[in-house]
Amino acid sequence: MYRKYLAFLHAISINLISRVGVIITSSSFVTFIIMVIALQLGIVTNAYVGLLIYLAIPSFFILGLILIPIGWRLQKSRVHKQTGELLEEQFPSEDLISGVFGSRLLIKVAFFTLLNILFIALISLEAFEYMNQPVFCGTACHNVMGPEWATYQQSPHARIKCVACHVGEKTEAVFFAKFNGVRQVYLESLNSYNRPIPTPVHTMAPARETCEQCHWSDKSYGTKIKDFVSYDTDEASTPYYTTLALNIETASPTGREGIHWHISVENEVRYASVDDKNLTMIYVEARTDDGSFNRFTNPDFSENVDLSGALRTLDCIGCHNRPAHIFLDAETAVNNKLEQNVINTSLPYIKREALASITQEYPDKQTALTGIEDHITTFYRENYPEIAVSMGPAINEAVLALQEMYGLYIHHDMNITWGTYPNFIGHKNDSGCMRCHNDMLEDETGNTISGDCELCHTILAYDEPEPFIVK
Ligand code: HEC
Ligand code: HEC
Ligand code: HEC
Ligand code: HEC
Ligand code: HEC
Q1: Which single residue of 56, 81, 96, 283 has CA 20 to 30 Å from 211?
Q2: Atom of ligand 3 nearest to the CA of 247
Q3: Confidence band, pLDDT 50/70/90 cuts, at residue 4
Q4: If you measure from the C-alpha of residue 1 to the centroid of ligand 5, how many angstroms do you get, rounded to a whole number?
Q5: 301-310, 360-369, 458-467: which has the minimum mean pLDDT?
Q6: CA distance 400 to 393
């Protein structure tokens, strides 16, 4: 059987080109099988190996297959013979006798063609599956996706596939995304992409096809109590406690009220912003009961610029723009570590110094990591020599936590620093909700979109020295 197979391969290798084709195809096939086994057994795990297995090797396999008929065609014109004559020269005559289903050769060729098609189809399916895995999206283009991959793994969506949010389930979207993905791999290999990757992501499917596959927009979330702890920059890093009752959504006889009011079917909010960042609004419109839109305009842009083409509807991502890639600001990141007691508040001035150490400008990651360590250890050695000794382990732990934090949020090679990717969920730095809920935007009757502190949350406690206890 094996002999016969070899004889067949030998026969179709009519000249150098066909022979090269046969060699390339057979060796890619063998390499493919070995690599897949290695990948399955976990001997190799690198995402680049996946690229090799599912993109490079199959390309060679197909290239080899194409070379074989090219070789035959060239041979035909070189020796001025018909295909039939060449076949007679290359194959034993019993292979060429026509039987019920055609000659044995024909059956063989048909069989191998079918086998090849099956094989290619199988690889394509496998490749498709493989490229849908977050680990592929996150690590195949290591530098580019590194920041999103790192933050994704810490997010509430760490188990959700990238494609569930970025592509959705529509077939056109899926195919488009694959083409786009291949283009991105190509750009990555040429090193030509934007750093940082710009947002909003224009190729992202609408929230209806992504978020809403898992979250039902009409779900009632009621009120959510949320605690915030912040720490002063004094010697004791004094904590302050704020507690809000976020009015996410409540049903009322007249429809829905509260924060998720924007996304209920009865309502629609649209906006046109100055630039792509969606930070400064030109106008914002809310649909009224009669179906018309009430427009709130920014007087800075009163010359009635028509931007109907650039109108966006406020959907989930308009507020939840960081469900998976949460880049905290330095202050919140440090507050969290203090709250979790990973950074010990008994260290004098630790809030102030921690913040100073991570917000300094460093030329690269390595310098930053040593810089953070130097900053913290020098501070205690020079100002609190006894504490530097007695609380040595706590200082080390703080340094490690700050270095890890820096590594997670700051990415020099992608030009990502503090504040590169703002979070729109609250109103830090008058951004987020306050892009619309401000005094500036006015409708025709002079009304503004309310910025009343009690519109979105009841403030149960505000910067109190003790944590709020729900009674
Ligand atoms: C829960 C949904 C969700 C998941 C899962 C998700 N993303 Fe995102 N991603 C988003 C949203 C939302 C944005 C911001 C879109 C915007 O602002 O227009 C985004 C933005 C990005 C950006 C642009 C840069 C940035 O930070 O804004 C990249 C790159 C990216 N995601 C890659 C990935 C990769 C790789 C994975 C999987 C490892 C992934 N995403 C998983 C929702 C998701
Ligand atoms: C494949 C399903 C899936 C998709 C798609 C998805 N989510 Fe989620 N989402 C979840 C699950 C599961 C949780 C609960 C995680 C938990 O409880 O830890 C969650 C949690 C959340 C939360 C609460 C987070 C928190 O801090 O507890 C928000 C907000 C959210 N999703 C928004 C979004 C947005 C916006 C999108 C679209 C960009 C999206 N989700 C897409 C499954 C999904
Ligand atoms: C793109 C603009 C825009 C953004 C961003 C925005 N809103 Fe609104 N919001 C509106 C408009 C417009 C109204 C309706 C105002 C009116 O008709 O008087 C509204 C109304 C509301 C209401 C009142 C709903 C009711 O019960 O009648 C709440 C609560 C609210 N927004 C919360 C928020 C929160 C919280 C955020 C940030 C996470 C936010 N909004 C972000 C435009 C926006
Ligand atoms: C106007 C801004 C806005 C829009 C639009 C919006 N949300 Fe929210 N959503 C919020 C805010 C604010 C919260 C409370 C955030 C917090 O817990 O800190 C929230 C909370 C949530 C939660 C968490 C509830 C919980 O109990 O923790 C989920 C899940 C969620 N939203 C999903 C969605 C989905 C899905 C969409 C789109 C259909 C959407 N949101 C649209 C502002 C918005
Ligand atoms: C349009 C809705 C809206 C309005 C108006 C609003 N807030 Fe908020 N605020 C939010 C949301 C949403 C959050 C939750 C952010 C989060 O979950 O991180 C928040 C968070 C906060 C926090 C805790 C966040 C922190 O970083 O400390 C404070 C304090 C606060 N708001 C105070 C106020 C005050 C004071 C006003 C009135 C001047 C006000 N808010 C008006 C929506 C609003």
Answers
A1: 283
A2: 29
A3: confident
A4: 76
A5: 301-310
A6: 11
pLDDT value, residue 186:
57
Judging by DSSP bridges, how do beta strands 312-313 and 269-273 pair with one another?
Answer: antiparallel
Are the beta carbons of 247 and 258 closer than 8 angstroms? yes
Q: Is-contact 137 162, C-beta < 8 A?
A: yes
Candidate from 259, 456, 462, 464 with most ligand 5 atoms within 8 A of CB, to mutate: 456
CA 245 to chain centre: 31
Nearest ligand 3 atom, CA 426: 38
Sole residue written with tokens 């909700």: 433
Minimum CA distance residue for ligand 3 atom 41:
433
Stated as kind and residue range, the H or E segment containing 295 is strand 293-297
Residue 379 has a pLDDT of: 98
Report H helices in 161-260.
Answer: 162-166, 171-190, 211-214
Residues 6+ apart with CB under 8 A from 458: 244, 245, 247
Q: What pLDDT digit, counting tens, does each position of 197-226 carry?
A: 888 888 788 898 899 999 988 788 899 999
pLDDT in tens, 9-66: 899 999 999 999 999 999 999 999 998 888 888 787 666 777 788 888 889 999 999 9
DSSP H or E stretch at residue 336: helix 330-339
pTM for the full predicted model: 0.88
Tokens at 87, concatenated: 């076949």
Q: How far is the CA of 145 from the centre of ligand 1 (A)?
A: 10
Nearest CA to 68 out of 150, 122, 13 is that of 13
Give tens-digit pLDDT for 69-90: 999 999 999 999 888 888 888 8
Domain boundaries, given as residue ranges, for the chain: 2-132, 136-213, 222-323+424-464, 330-414
Neighbours of 171 (CB within 10 A): 8
- Any idea which residue has 């290359």 for tokens? 90
Beta strands 281-287 and 255-257, pairing class: unpaired
Q: Is the CB of 314 under 6 A from ligand 4?
A: yes
Q: Which residue would you say has higher pLDDT here, 385 or 257?
A: 385
Distance from C-alpha of 166 to C-alpha of 132, rounded to nearest angstrom: 11
Give the nearest ligand 3 atom to 286 CA. 12
- Please identify which residue in the block is written with the tokens 């792509």: 276
Q: What is the pLDDT of residue 136?
A: 81
Tokens representing residue 70 in the block: 């090219």
Contacts of 166 (CB under 8 A, 6+ apart): 177, 201, 203, 204, 205, 210
